[in-house]
Every structure is written in structure tokens, then in C-alpha cells.
Specification:
The protein is of the alpha/beta class. It is built from eleven helices and eight strands. It has a domain of 218 residues: Spore Coat Polysaccharide Biosynthesis Protein SpsA, Chain A. The N and C termini lie far apart (48 Å).
């Protein structure tokens, strides 16, 4: 029981504290900032489904970007929309927007497989209809491609929580800052694992069609590029803006989908777990793999702790776990409240993410996680 207890503690501590400290130290000791510059031809691809209410504002946002208009192609690909999204987007065709309308909804990966190879840009930027870009987002996003060793670049998603942020929104914002800390330092040393789906770019020549039922194109596409020896870097100055989840149920659905996609990646891409075939093996296992084991490790930690209560140290550790889970429970009971109470948001979101991992595993095993996504309101 002591072995189980301390092994669980060690793996949890490494995954959530040790690994971030390790990549931060590596980035400080051996930084490899990419060379920057240039204005390559860029194609921005937006895959949209039933986004008639948003697509106009999104196109206007992209047309206003600080990037030469003659070197920027905007492509809106409608994935089986039934609300008039293609018709709304075609109003901007005189401004150079290309609209591709697919009659049947197949999911983002299938649309990317059709659209990306036909794009005119040397660099292809993947974007969504929901978020907005900072005026300099494209300029900053493509600058690292001046380095021939860079194959993909991820931008930074800024969650703009206002004064009415709920408990879950506050906790998610903290988690997202923590996640970006890891990505930033992974990138500075070599490569990050995957990209931010709302804003990332690749060299078009490196694109390889992906299975149409892929849930996480923003991880599989960059990792496939990294497998060929190119870097995947994180560019914090390339910013997209979004709001955090308004409710716990919305965030839960998002995370279940994302984590189910991670299970899918590891199940299909066995090379990801091989140090011989994945040069980013340490990052992949530490950043992605161990998090999938967290619910099991937490359960093993609690169970072994209960069986070791004869020792004072283990009574103290169980007490600490109880306090943590009580804080998480109080966070859950006040999850949609807008009054901030310290020390509840992080435990609550931590437990929410681990429960989402459990549900995602079940959905992956039963094949109930769809590739298509029903957007949240707002």
C-alpha cells in the first residue's frame, strides 16, 4: 500500500508540478527561439456549421487584420450548414472571400482534407467562427515560419472573463494560464504538443490528410508535422479572443470531447508512445499521457491512504485530501455563482477535469463521442 501511495503521489506531482518545472528549466538553460520575419502568402480557413449569426462579424474581423491584403486569402468552408451560413458569407465575395459550401455535414477534419490542399497560401491558418483575432495575429503567427525548421505555429487563446465570471469560468481561466505556461516553455526549448484549435498555422506543403473522424485535428496535424522533424512552436503574440465557459455543463462538454480525442489519438497513433518513433515522446507522455491516468492515480492515492491510517503521516495526508475535495464540493455547489470565494475555483475545476477524463474514457470505449460539435450559445 505504501508503494501504491507514494507512486501515485510521485506521478501526480510530476504530471502537474514536476513536468512544468522541468520544461521551464530546460527552456531557460537551452532556449531555441526561432528566426522571425517575412510576409508569406497566407490562407485563413474557417470551417463553419450553422454560423449565420456570427460569420459576418468574423469575416469583418479578418478583413481588418494588419496584413497585406494581396497576400491574404480568406476561405469560409460551410460544413453542411442549414441556416444560410454560405449565403451570408458570400456577401463578402467582392472583398475577396472564397466560400465553399458542402451540402452534407461531415465534420471539420473531412472539410480540411478537401480545402487545405487547394488553398493558395504557402501558410494555412486554421480558425473558427466563434473567436476574434487581434489585428496583428496573422503577422505574428506567420513570423516564425521564417525559420525553415518550423512546420507549425500555435497562437494564444485569451479568455476574456469579465466581472460577471462564474466559479467555473474563473477556474478555467487559471487552468488555461497554467496550460499556456507549459506550452510556451515547451516551444522555447523545442516543440509543444499540439496547437490551439482556434488559431494555428501550418506549412501547406506539410499537410497530410487525416482520418475524417479525427476529434483533435489541432493535435494530430501538428504532431504529424513534428514527426517529420519540424518544430511546432507557440507564439504568444498571435492572439485570438474568446470567453470562458459560462456554465459548468458547457465546460464539461468541451473537456469531455477534447479528452476523448486524446484517447483516440493514443489508441490509433501508437507511435506517439514510442520513444523511437516520436521525438517528442517525453513531452507527449508527460503533458498528455499522464493526465489521462490522473483519475486512476487519485483513486489509488485515496484508497491506499485509507488503508495506511495507522501512521500519523497518512492521517495528515488523508485530511489534506478531504479538505481539497470539500473545497471542490463547495465550488460545485456554487458553480454558477458570480461571487468569488477564494480557494474553491481551482479544486473544483481540477475535479471537473478528472471527472471529464473518466466520462471521456467511457465515451471513447463505446464510440459515443462524435467528430461533429454542437456549438454553445454566446
Amino acid at each position: 500500500m505504501e508503494l501504491i501511495f507514494w507512486l501515485s503521489v510521485a506521478l501526480l506531482a510530476y504530471a502537474h508540478v514536476g513536468y512544468p518545472a522541468l520544461v521551464a528549466a530546460r527552456a531557460r538553460l537551452r532556449p531555441r527561439p526561432p528566426r522571425r520575419g517575412g510576409e508569406p502568402m497566407v490562407s485563413v480557413v474557417i470551417v463553419a456549421h450553422d454560423e449565420a449569426t456570427r460569420i459576418g462579424a468574423r469575416i469583418q474581423n479578418l478583413l481588418a487584420l494588419d496584413y497585406p491584403a494581396d497576400r491574404l486569402e480568406l476561405v469560409v468552408a460551410s460544413d453542411g450548414s442549414s441556416d444560410g451560413t454560405p449565403e451570408c458569407a458570400r456577401a463578402w465575395e467582392p472583398d475577396g472571400v472564397t466560400v465553399v459550401a458542402f451540402e452534407t455535414r461531415r465534420g471539420k477534419p473531412a472539410v480540411l482534407n478537401d480545402v487545405v490542399p487547394k488553398a493558395r497560401g504557402e501558410i494555412v491558418v486554421m480558425a473558427d467562427a466563434r473567436q476574434t483575432f487581434d489585428p496583428r495575429a496573422i503577422r505574428e503567427l506567420v513570423a516564425p515560419f521564417a525559420d525553415a525548421g518550423v512546420g507549425a505555429v500555435s497562437g494564444e487563446l485569451i479568455l476574456t472573463a469579465g466581472g460577471d465570471a462564474t466559479r467555473v469560468g474563473e477556474g478555467v481561466s487559471v487552468y488555461w494560464r497554467y496550460e499556456k505556461f507549459i506550452r510556451r516553455h515547451e516551444s522555447l526549448a523545442d516543440s509543444t504538443v499540439g496547437a490551439t484549435g482556434a488559431i494555428y498555422a501550418i506549412r501547406r506543403a506539410l499537410f497530410v490528410p487525416i482520418p475524417p473522424d479525427t476529434i483533435l485535428d489541432d493535435v494530430l496535424i501538428p504532431m504529424t508535422i513534428a514527426r517529420r522533424g519540424y518544430r511546432v512552436v507557440f507564439e504568444a503574440a498571435a492572439r485570438a479572443y474568446d470567453r470562458p465557459a459560462a456554465t459548468a455543463s458547457e465546460e464539461f462538454r468541451r473537456k469531455v470531447r477534447t479528452i476523448a480525442g486524446t484517447f483516440q489519438l493514443f489508441a490509433r497513433g501508437r507511435w506517439l508512445l514510442s520513444p523511437r518513433h516520436n521525438r517528442l515522446w517525453l513531452q507527449t507522455v508527460s503533458h498528455k499521457g499522464l493526465r489521462l491516468l490522473s483519475p486512476l492515480l487519485l483513486a489509488a492515492l485515496a484508497a491506499s491512504n485509507v488503508l495506511l491510517l495507522a501512521e500519523p503521516l497518512y492521517r495528515l495526508s488523508l485530511g489534506a485530501q478531504v479538505v481539497f475535495y470539500v473545497a471542490a464540493l463547495l465550488g460545485w455547489l456554487t458553480r454558477d455563482a458570480r461571487t468569488r470565494i477564494p480557494f474553491m475555483s481551482v479544486p473544483y475545476v481540477f475535479c471537473l477535469l478528472n471527472w471529464a477524463t473518466t466520462v471521456a474514457f467511457v465515451r471513447f470505449l463505446t464510440g459515443r463521442q462524435r467528430v461533429t460539435w454542437d456549438k454553445a450559445a454566446g
